[in-house]
Amino acid sequence: MQDAVVAVSTLDGTHKETVQQVDVAVVGAGFAGLYLLYRLRKAGFTTVTLEEADDVGGTWYWNRYPGARCDIQTIDYGFTFDPELEGAWRWSEKYATQPEILRYLGFVADRYDLRRDIRFRTKVTAAIWDQAKQRWLLATDNGASVSCRHYIMATGCLSSPKPPEIDGVKNFKGEVYFTGRWPHEEVKLAGKRVAVIGTGSSGIQSIPLIAEQAAELAVFQRTPNFALPAHNGPVPGDRKALLDNDRTGYREQARWSLAGVPYPQQTVVSWQLSDAERRERFEKAWDAGDLVYILTQLWADQAVDVDGNALLAELFRDKIRAAVKDPETAEALTPYDHPFGAKRPCLDTNYYATFNRPNVTLVNLRQEPIEAITTSGIKTGKRTFDVDVIVFATGFDAMTGAIMAVHPITGRGGKSLSEVWANGPQTYLGLTVAGFPNLFMITGPGSPSVLSNMAVSIEQHVDWVVDRLTAMREAGFATIEATEAAQAGWARHMADCSMLTLHRLANTWYTGANVPGKAQGVMPYTGGVGPYRSICNEVVDRGMLGFMLSGPSVAEQCNDGEIVRLQPDVRLVLNMLAEMKLPPIESFGFQGARDFVAQFNASRPAGRPVGEIVDGSLPGPDGALSYRLYRPATPGPHPIVVYFHGGGWVLGDEQSDDPFCRDMCRRTGMIFVSVGYRHAPEYRFPAAAEDGYAATRWIAEHTAELGGQPGPVLVAGWSAGGNIAAVTCQLARDRGGPKIAGQLLVCPVTDCRFDRPSYNDNAAGYFLTRSLMYWFWDLYCSPADRTDPRVSPLRGKLAGLPPAFVVTCEFDPLRDEGNAYAEALTAAGVPVEQLQARGHFHSSFTMVDMVITSVSGRVQMAEALRRFAGLPPQATGGDEARRGQLASHKLAAAAG
Ligand code: NAP
Fold first, then answer.
1. Whose CA is nearest to atom 3 of ligand 1?
2. What is the best residue among 394, 515, 520 to mutate for testing ligand 1's pocket, by most ligand atoms within 8 Å of CB?
3. pTM, full prediction
4. For 152-188, what is each residue's pLDDT tens digit?
5. What is the DSSP letter of 708?
6. Please, which residues have CB within 8 angstroms of residue 724's CB and are 6 or more apart in sequence?
7. Tens digit of pLDDT for each residue in 365-382?
8. 295 CA distance to ligand 1 centroid (A)?
9. Which atom number of ligand 1 is nearest to the Cα of residue 201?
């Protein structure tokens, strides 16, 4: 390499030495480091890259084990920043081998003459922030130290192999190899007795090839994994045609997709498909041999819902059983302990069939754990395996290992990164850490990284960082640092996102569970590549929100704040609505608004099946009222909940809240009767209130006829329906019945006052607007009537009402009146439970299967209704029970 500016300086204050001075130092010369070097150089920064290996390649330099291949299709796995580069390189296969990927990275390094700024065989041994100079000082094990303004870790997520963690490795007299540090010279396994420990991606790729060479192979498996056949071959014609037809569009779609590969988002949910249709979709995915496809393209609920996932996992298990001849071996190879995709699935060639070979033995460590490695082999609880070679395919200290374990990093005020991260990685955007100015991580913990196509995520991070450094230079800023508040907000957002997928339900390297003693929590960002990209862009658009910037001759800037306060899926829904640029609903007129809502609801996922749905009618105060009854699939009779839909007394019907009623019917195990009360402006106050009361009375008197349990009914409602439910309880108390066992009020209208803060804070932008509420009130109720408790129940007498569960949402104009009602009920001696839902909006709980993060709230509502009805807690299936584990989720705890 050419020498950059070299000066004499003091590194630790005790001795003088040569220090290389650069604007930016980068660690690592893999995918990320190479692109960084290219972009930094182009942007005019002096740069050095420090690389431990003797050539470029990063993970593809070290992982040379037999069978090592990419498991993202090659047309998606490469640099896209230069169309000429894309034109100059042709992949030979659908999934490239490690040597071919390494050749590609060498080709890139040569094409842009990158090697001249890379110091190979050079490890950073310490990094210290010098606050006075506002520079990082890096000690190295080879040559000059480095002084740099900015320090960027391009160290990869899976580059720090785990130690073996098994007693006696040093005693073993044979050969020992690690897949993550495979020798460059040929490893001869022919005729030898080989043991492979570990059945993750590295093990699963190497085992079939090792089996072909070795005399005997023993595979030591702790946890079985799902492996999909790669069906490797030429680049698939359909994908290539898509790329060739519109390269720019294809790449752009990848950048905004969920996983960094341009596949559409599925909308069909598993319960809309028959068994045969689901199997057909699965077989197609199996034949496609594409992990991203099978992880995202079968049905919309496969990665977010335990039941939707289980359907897929079972189809997968059938394949394993069919591929492996010995039933006991097949069973041992079949995963049951994690949802499909929660642990990284693998792509294989002949993996399961390898266990049909006579020279291959599967050792199930769940039944016979390894006790020790001896001089001659491996001793389990049941037997001893004498072997010549042990291959450790035991994985990595993922995501944090390469950043914090490789060398001490000391930030402002002597803060040690290892100490700051002792309870799990804390970052802002997965890019920066509070207390560590001018330190960046490419694809760090807290970013989509390993849950995405790394090539796409690396380019996004590198572009973001280099663009920021350029903008800082132009503005005269020398330092940039995340604020503590921004970082804490990101941790909360990460914890919220972790509710979106099933990753939290498995013990994996994603959660740190593979390294003994490591803090646990989902480390990568689970909110998706596209949403993440939009957040990073928004940080910039909002004036570098969450960052402090300073410079020698400019005023310090600190734009403190939290970038995402909404729940991640609420943010997506609201962004989608904002993009539609809809006129205010009230501008459609009441009939137009009803049509709009019906059309909007038609685009929702279909509600989940329940035991039975019956439409009927009941006598109201002024003619018949329709109703829809949802009966659970469990044997009855069940208690009855009388339900009132939302819609501001103007909109909505039994259909509009159908998914919510189905969901609550399933969760409570109770009958829901959704009442079609009369609407304004055709029927103004008090029509809806009187209908609600009359319907409740009639239902309570006809429980047996409806197949319900005799005894008190319960009432529930959302929004204006919550208003009707609350009013019904007051009327029932005052008019001699019926007896009501409990009331569930979800974001209820409770009062005609519009000056509470939430009416202003959330006046616009959260779907239910202040002006829409004004419109609803005007259509339903004259100003003179508005203080009547039959429309403003907060103004009524509250003592003696049934116990209540009151739900309010942070970003809802109705938040404060809901809270006020809960407080007033409590003050009047009514037992009240409250859910104040952070980051949610008015429609969060009724947008079932669109706002996934609202599930836990509905679980709480259902449990409350069951308590009110005197039923024991519902023995809910896996997911809800496991969702409870989140209380101990470390990232969430840290956020709290
Ligand atoms: P891994 O997925 O963490 O697998 C390690 C395996 O070793 C697991 O089966 C683990 O069992 C087992 N293990 C760990 N410590 C053990 C111990 N003390 N005793 C017994 N068994 C032990 O690691 P990997 O296979 O190297 O893959 C890591 C990641 O790298 C992959 O998930 C993938 O993202 C990436 N990768 C990608 C490719 C590709 O692109 N083609 C190839 C290789 C790797 P438990 O599951 O019980 O912990």
1. 395
2. 394
3. 0.94
4. 999 999 999 998 889 999 999 999 999 999 999 999 9
5. B
6. 644, 677, 688, 689, 691, 692, 717
7. 999 999 999 999 999 999
8. 19
9. 25
